[in-house]
Sequence to fold (442 residues):
Amino acid sequence: MTPTLPPARSGKLPARSPDPRPAAGWICRRLYNLAWYPALPLALAVTDSGAPCLAERLGKADCRMPSEASPRIWLHASSVGEIEAARPIAIGLLEQYPGAALMVTTMTASGRDAATRRIPAAVCRLAPLDHPLAVRRFLKSAAPDVVLITEAELWPNYFIESRRRGARLAIVNGRLSARSLKRYKLLGPLWRAVVNCADLVMVQSGADAEHYQALGAGADRIVVTGNTKFTSSAMEAELHGALAKFAADGPTLIAGSTAPGEEVQILTAYTQLRAEFPALRLVLAPRHLERTLEIQQLLNRQGLDYLQASELKRGANTGQGSVLLLDTLGDLGPLYRCGTLAFVGGSLFEGRGGQNLGEPAAAGVAVFFGPFHQKQQETAQALLAHGGGAIVRDAQELVCAAARLLRDPVARREQAARARQAYEGLAGGAARTLTGLRALIG
Fold:
């Protein structure tokens, strides 16, 4: 599907859809909001601890942007990966609108910390819970003129309350799986009201466009821009010398963004590969750092000597090891540049839909991933079509695929080059998104 963009409107907004309060949608929203009251204690119990975090979750933190700033932009993302995808949009907007102020919110503390590092010009906070009172407090403090919601963060009160305050609203880098669409249709009137609050729905693929239209978004507001992760500047980050030295000491398999159950498969494959390739090194990078202790215990049970990235970066004398446990943020993307082969997790088992395939492809590394990669469908198809990636279903298939490329450096370099070509063919999402936002903001 060829990306199309609305024409510039001399600062005027596209015509608004009707106020999203038809009877069925209003009733669904009332039920949704009522459900928040018994759910609120549980939501607060599992949120990040501490009074400042609690204040942010309840919309009570100071989120004011300068009243003279224009425009005042609220950008909401879920966590670390979404921040990397949103970063070129945030930086581009601040460059295009020198008088702008930017507030970035995330659902996780690690995402907020990543936003603070990667978008230093922004004020970064934990997002308010989608309780109507929390959202209203937040919006009263932040008073945004423009609201940008990334990917699949369809929180009803974010949309409806922002719309009521008169903010211009866009979904950026939007995605919506067939599975999610089926679930949302159970409360179809509510979600139809939500997506019709958006002035512009900018999505990653033609399939996402079809799903948003099926949910109720007007076709004239949907734009296929591509995935902004393909133009993310994560690869610009410098890699700590100790981590670069680890990867340079031998051929390196990087297992990135792994999920529970996948580490066992990877370590089984790695143990078998080491029998033929004794110099092979492994970087094990779990998707969630809170699983570090669990993976340490797994490595100990397997009798594998390992190093921790956090200790290497501190200069600690940690001895020797052929496995690096990546327990730090922001190092996976740069490490891919030093890798020989890459496996991207969240894809061996059902339920997660795969993690970012673009980073290793951008680094020019041959990419392996599992069969459950629905959230990465566009990237996966491009990698498979170009011959830059391959699907592996278990440890044994990973052994066969990796061993073939480790034995044949020419084939490995060709596959890596094709992965890079696939990435370059998908690039440009950030530029198209910024063009769409210029038409919206004026």
Notes: The first helix runs from residue 23 to 45. The chain is about 45% helix and 15% strand. The two ends are 26 Å apart (CA to CA).
